[in-house]
Amino acid sequence: MGHEWRNWSGSLRFTPREQVTPADEDALRALVDRARRTSTKLRPVGSGHSSSPLVRTEDVLVSLTGLARSMQRHEDPQLATVGAGVPLGELGEALYEAGLAMDNLGDVDVQSIAGATATGTHGTGLRFGSLSTQVAGVRMVTGTGEVLDISPERNADLLPAARLSLGALGVVTRMTLRLAPTYHLRRRSWCSSIAWTLEHLHQLQRQNRNMDFYWYPRTDTTQIRTLNLHGEEPALTPAGESRTTETGPSHRTIPRHRELRFDEIEYAIPSEAFHPCFAEIRRRVLNRHRAGVAWRILVRTVAEDDIWLSNAYDRSTTTIACLQNNSLPYQEYFDDVEAVFRQHDGRPHWGKKHSLTARDLSRLYPQWESFQDVRRRLDPDDVFLTPDLARLLEDR
User: Fold this and answer.
1) By C-alpha distance, which of 340, 332, 341 is closest to 289?
2) Is the pTM of this model over 0.85?
3) Where is the FAD-binding PCMH-type domain (predicted)?
4) To the nearest whole percent, how much of the chain has pLDDT over 90?
5) Out of 17-21, 173-177, 293-297, 353-357, which region has the weakest mean confidence (pLDDT)?
6) Strands (E), the chain
7) Where are the domains of the chain?
């Protein structure tokens, strides 16, 4: 028996029979071949930042950290191919040295690029989709042991599934990203009132390159955060106390360093449903959970896309994330807010806590069956379909 694996927050723990770190695609193909012959499961894992059980298995856990991390440039200067296991922080530095940058990032940068895109990790900004929208191509070892390249030029019909796949199609070894030239951002934050924030929210979102806010249940106040190219700050300044200002390269300015660890539930809702949804979340938290909620609630925006399992598929999206310190109970709180999210056509973040199954999820994604068809084609023997993944994708 192997040793216990645990995720970043500590809320997910399991002991796979084996943990392996293949160095190349030949080793991965051998693992897939063995799994098919012995009817065992493989699950790829990145940094373990996710708090959902996507990676949980009793069989073989496959780490991406041993794969080559070198970056390859393309004739198109906006494209670069990188190793799937490279952490976002390390990737940002490598891109910066090459004069490139991702056009947006999430709030943390400890995830691997493959793990972040496989779960729909996102930042904020009306013009920016999730990190998966920056994926221009994927190379993977499928459930049949085939090494498959997916891009607009090769197997293009698979790209809407492969850009956000939950690790259900194969083990990704390399990814091609569509990038931007290096740019610097000025980060600013303010403490403000919830009333002012909600009244001016649309204007703040529209005028800033990136904007989000935290709501603090204990004080019923907010922290507003904006990011803009130098010299492009809007005239509207939040009413409240200015807290911080810093300027730097995008990959160092967008993510935040996290010392304290937490668990999280986040749902993506249609932007037009945000105000009634948030009002009910706020009411329930103040009336039922205020004494036990030690963390804030984060509100961000994500542009619509055409990726089949993206929670921003075909709609402009606002996300609401409820955080709880990992040393405190969260289940009753998360169950209560999840009921509200579901009333407003919410789609859960794949990498965070939620209770939905395939029966629920299939109704939320118009291309659900298209993704299932691709999954069965690339993994006909269910090498990657663990019981947890089956509950999400197959069980009805």
Assistant:
1) 332
2) yes
3) 12-182
4) 89
5) 293-297
6) 5-6, 13-14, 18-20, 42-45, 60-63, 72-73, 79-83, 100-101, 135-142, 147-150, 170-178, 180-181, 184-193, 210-216, 221-229, 240-249, 262-270, 297-302, 317-325, 347-348
7) 72-181, 184-348
| Bridge partners, residue 301, by sequence | 318
What is the C-alpha to C-alpha distance for residues 17 and 42, in angstroms, rounded to an integer?
11
Q: Are strands 60-63 and 18-20 parallel, antiparallel or unpaired?
A: parallel
As a whole number of angstroms, the distance between CA 268 and CA 348 comes to 6
pLDDT category, 1, cuts 50, 70, 90?
Answer: low
Task: Write out pLDDT tens, residues 315-360.
Answer: 999 999 999 999 899 999 999 999 999 999 999 999 999 999 999 9
For the stretch 150-208, pLDDT in tens is 999 999 999 999 999 999 999 999 999 999 999 999 999 999 999 999 999 999 999 99
CATH of domain 72-181: 3.30.465.10
Give 200-220 as a DSSP string.
THHHHHHHSSEEEEEEETTTT
Q: Domain 184-348, what fold?
A: Vanillyl-alcohol Oxidase; Chain A, domain 3 (3.40.462)
> What's the Cα-to-Cα distance from 54 to each of 33, 49, 119, rounded to whole Å?
22, 11, 9
Characterize 103-129 residue by residue with b for buried, 16 or more Cβ atoms within 10 angstroms of its Cβ, and e for exposed: bbbbbbbbbbbbbbbbbbbbbbbbebb
Q: What token pair was written down for 263?
A: 């668990």
Going from the C-alpha of 394 to that of each of 307, 329, 371, 380, 388, the distances in angstroms are: 19, 30, 11, 13, 10
| Integer Cα distance of 330 and 265 in angstroms | 9
Neighbours of 6 (CB within 10 A): 12
